[in-house]
Every structure is written in structure tokens, then in C-alpha cells.
What we know:
Shape: flat
Helix content: 25-40%
Distance between the termini: 33 Å
CATH architecture of the largest domain: 2-Layer Sandwich
Largest sheet: 5 strands, mixed
Number of strands: 20
Strand order of the largest sheet: 4-3-2-11-12
CATH superfamily of the largest domain: ATPase, nucleotide binding domain
Number of domains: 3
Radius of gyration: 21 Å
Oligomer: single chain
Strand content: 25-35%
Amino acid sequence: MIKIRKELFIAIDLGTSYTKVYVKELGMVEELPTVIALNRRNRSVISFGEEAKKMIGRNPQNIDVVRPVLRGIVTHFDEALIFLENVLEKIKKDFLPLFGLKLIIGIPLDLTEVQKKGVVDVGLGAGAKEVYLVEEPVAAALGANLDIEQAKGILIVDIGGGTTDIALISLGGVVLGKSIRIGGDTFNESIINYLKSKYGLIIGEGQAEEAKISIGTINLKSGSFLIKGRDILTGLPKEINFFSQDLRESILENLDDIVLNVKDIINLSPPDLLGDISSSGIYLSGGGSLIDGIDNFLEKEIKLKINLVEEPKYAVIRGLGKIVEDFVHFKKLINYA
Length: 337
């Protein structure tokens, strides 16, 4: 049965790896990989989301499998538009919005005005009458139930699929911030390069992701993941066991880069806000933070308490959802409209 609504207000965390969708008064209704498969000849949609993700590295020549968002930036505009249209169409079929559709989309820090306009254009092209942008670390802090509107410094590190956003927030705004192109996808690339260098094994992105999730820790623990690939010398099939020590070694350089950038923000922080950070510590969110031991690693290297927020993978979409539910109050957090 179609439900009549005055308007349909939707929040979207359009991530490099996954897209999450929140509908006002309904909560989060969708979580799917940001992937779309198209017929190469006529660009018709073959599949999107989970089914399209399964095709990565396995698609025939007549099918293009595209990840339209790379490192937090919409790099394939047309494909991003088609992807978003299909996601919204799936939701809109249950509703009849009398006054149209409004969108709030989370974005990384440091996007240029042109890149922001690109995200807005994708939303408008997908049928929205209004599109608002909110910086992801602000949304993540809000989703972590932190009082970002008070005159107090909050330092949050959001490790997503394509970027890590580091932001010092006070009075509802970003005082200092930096977005670095390191995230879950970078971890996968590092695993691929590590296996090639250390074991002479060539694997694809899918297996790297599986290995990362299966091991799930950089702490030294028993247990392994059997990786099957191609020997770099013979070209023949080869198998190795991948351990937590391997995962730690493979992404250590990425973690060191995150540490250096967090320290940069801390070193530039105004003295009063630095005192707040010293007292409360750093808040860690994002799907990349789910690898067990990353919080302890950061705490040891930065020498500040690390607070892993509740359900870190969903912090951004929870925060965007709060803005949707109380838009009048939180409208001041809008970065671009």
C-alpha cells in the first residue's frame, strides 16, 4: 500500500564502499555496496548494490562494473547518478510525496566547491528538489551522541572506506580538519601489495576484503585465512595462510599516516581546545575502525585516550538521521546547499 507523505526527507551516506539510506520517521532502511553494473553497449542497469559487487573482477567484456565514488569523491558522475536513481526508486515506490523529495548527503572534509556541486548535481539529477551537504565527521560526532554545539573541543577520527576524516569540532563547526585518502579500500590495496611483495602472490580486491574481515584484528592472535591466488613467477595457482601478523604488517604504513595527521591537528589546536581533547580523548568512528586493535594502536602512538564510538560503522548515517528528524534545529550544520 502506497503511503502519502507531505514530503519525503532522506539522508544518504554515499560512501566509497557502502551507501546507507535513512528515511525520516522510518530510520535506516538501506545499506548496500556503492557499485553498479551496466551493459557496456546501451548503459542499461544490470544490477546494483550487493549483486553488482559480486561481479567485480568476474565480469565479461560486455558488462561494466563501476564504483562511482572513489576516495570519497564522485569520480563517475553518470554512473553515480544512475546508482542513486535506482536506490531512491526502490524507496520511493512505497511513498507518494506531495511536495517532492529532499536529500541530505554526507561528504568528506576538504572537497572543493566543484566537487561539492558535483554531489549536489547528482542528488538533483536523481529527482530531489533540494539537496543539502553535511561534513561526515560532524555527522559522525552527532551520531555518536556527542554535544557538538557546546563550547568544547571534540576531536573525532572517522575511518571510512575511501577517506579518513580528522576534525576538531566546537560550537557546531569544524575548527580544524583534514581528509586523507586512507580508508578500508587503502587497507585492501596494501594487503594486495604486501602479498605480492612478501609471498609472490597475486590476488584481487575481493579476496583482500575477505581476508581483512575474516582476520579482523591487528593484535597477535591465532587463526588464519586461506588466500588463493596466482604465483607471480609461474603464473600457476598458489595458496598461503594469512595471519593477524600479516594484516598488521600490511596496513602498518597506513596506520602510521593516520597517526601523523592526527598529531598535526593536535599540534595546531588552540590551547583551550587542546585541554578539552586531553581530558576527553579522541573519538574513533567509521567502518575502518572495526579492525580490532586499531584503537589500541592509535592510543599507544598518540598517547591520548581513544574512545571507540558505539556501532562506529553507522555513526555518520545516525548523525545525518538526527538532522533529518530535527532539521530546523540542525540546519546550521549544513555545509553546502
